[in-house]
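Quick one, tokens below. Sequence please?
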């Protein structure tokens, strides 16, 4: 029986983590990829750990307090370069996040992403299969690129070619109750508009100092935290004036919901400037609330979605306001979000954290009549 349990434990560890691997520190990449490193260093990929992201820390601390967990299970995607990743996600093992462990602070490192050989798709969450060759990395710029330190291989990896390298972590996450906490509808068949084409657009600058290129894929990873302006072109705002009311249309042209994380709350602010006076109209809120027994609950406890007004993939949402516009009026529309739903701030102890409480403006538009 003990032998069977041991084999089962090992199988679970390999399934969940593709074993533990040793990765070169991201700092090693800076010498040749200075611009890319600077972009990465300021991104959420580099700052995904509890000691660098106060929102993630607050949620994780809450989970530990409520479940008495001795495993940093979030490590599968938040610290995948950890030297004890297997213990973080294997049932029965003990491994918490350690801010003094350099491999934990690597977060989602350069070497980790560029050694993703393939992706196994599973019901609960996907698994990244890592290349066993430490100094061979996958990329998307050329079919083969030799450098003094490593070799880039692209002709053998379709996931880098079609931009789906991100679906190992960013496809879906199903909790123990079968509730999909965060789905972006990405699958391995997508190739035109994908994670990389939208969130890592081409920008000016050489990919490295070894091989000069005119542009490279942006490694700051545009998203809800940083560089969201890069994504604003995928959302259109228009206004339709009627006799006694008007409609603001928000057209989400992306392949996933406007915001994915259940902690987020999007807000559409509408005001009318008339004769020098600003008239604030009712705000429209878009959110998705996870719950249990009809009440809001933390992700690990939730078994249902009790409210969902988030703008969906490829959805055009019409927001009507019973307000008669007059000639000379100007309607100002602001679309943005809170990284944490204001109603959840106190429960998470984030009421004094700027990053959690500030309203992030995504897109502004004015309409004159």
């Amino acid at each position: 029986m003990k032998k069977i349990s041991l084999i089962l434990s090992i199988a679970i560890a390999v399934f969940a983590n593709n074993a533990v691997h040793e990765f070169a520190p991201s700092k090693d990449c800076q010498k040749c990829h200075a611009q890319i490193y600077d972009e990465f260093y300021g991104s959420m990929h580099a700052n995904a750990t509890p000691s660098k992201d106060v929102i993630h820390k607050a949620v994780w601390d809450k989970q530990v307090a409520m479940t008495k967990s001795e495993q940093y299970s979030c490590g599968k995607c938040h610290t995948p370069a950890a030297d004890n990743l297997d213990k973080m996600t294997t049932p029965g093992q003990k491994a918490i996040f350690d801010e003094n462990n350099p491999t934990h602070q690597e977060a989602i490192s350069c070497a980790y992403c560029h050694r993703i050989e393939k992706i196994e798709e599973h019901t609960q969450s996907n698994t990244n299969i890592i290349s066993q060759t430490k100094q061979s990395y996958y990329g998307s710029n050329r079919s083969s690129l030799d450098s003094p330190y490593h070799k880039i291989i692209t002709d053998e990896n379709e996931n880098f070619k079609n931009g789906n390298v991100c679906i190992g972590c960013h496809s879906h996450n199903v909790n123990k109750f079968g509730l999909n906490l965060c789905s972006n509808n990405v699958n391995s068949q997508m190739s035109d508009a994908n994670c990389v084409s939208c969130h890592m657009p081409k920008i000016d600058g050489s990919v490295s100092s070894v091989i000069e290129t005119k542009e490279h894929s942006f490694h700051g990873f545009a998203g809800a935290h940083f560089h969201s302006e890069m994504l604003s072109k995928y959302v259109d705002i228009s206004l339709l004036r009627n006799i006694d009311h008007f409609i603001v249309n928000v057209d989400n042209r992306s392949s996933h919901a406007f915001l994915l994380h259940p902690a987020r709350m999007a807000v559409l602010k509408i005001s009318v400037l008339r004769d020098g006076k600003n008239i604030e109209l009712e705000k429209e809120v878009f959110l998705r609330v996870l719950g249990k027994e009809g009440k809001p609950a933390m992700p690990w406890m939730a078994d249902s979605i009790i409210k969902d007004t988030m703008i969906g993939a490829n959805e055009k949402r019409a927001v009507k306001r019973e307000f008669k516009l007059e000639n000379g009026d100007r309607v100002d529309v602001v679309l943005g979000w809170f990284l944490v739903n204001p109603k959840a701030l106190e429960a998470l102890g984030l009421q004094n954290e700027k990053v959690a409480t500030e309203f992030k403006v995504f897109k502004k538009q004015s309409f004159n009549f």
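The chain has two domains: 2-217, 228-368. Residues 1-17 have pLDDT under 50 and may be disordered.
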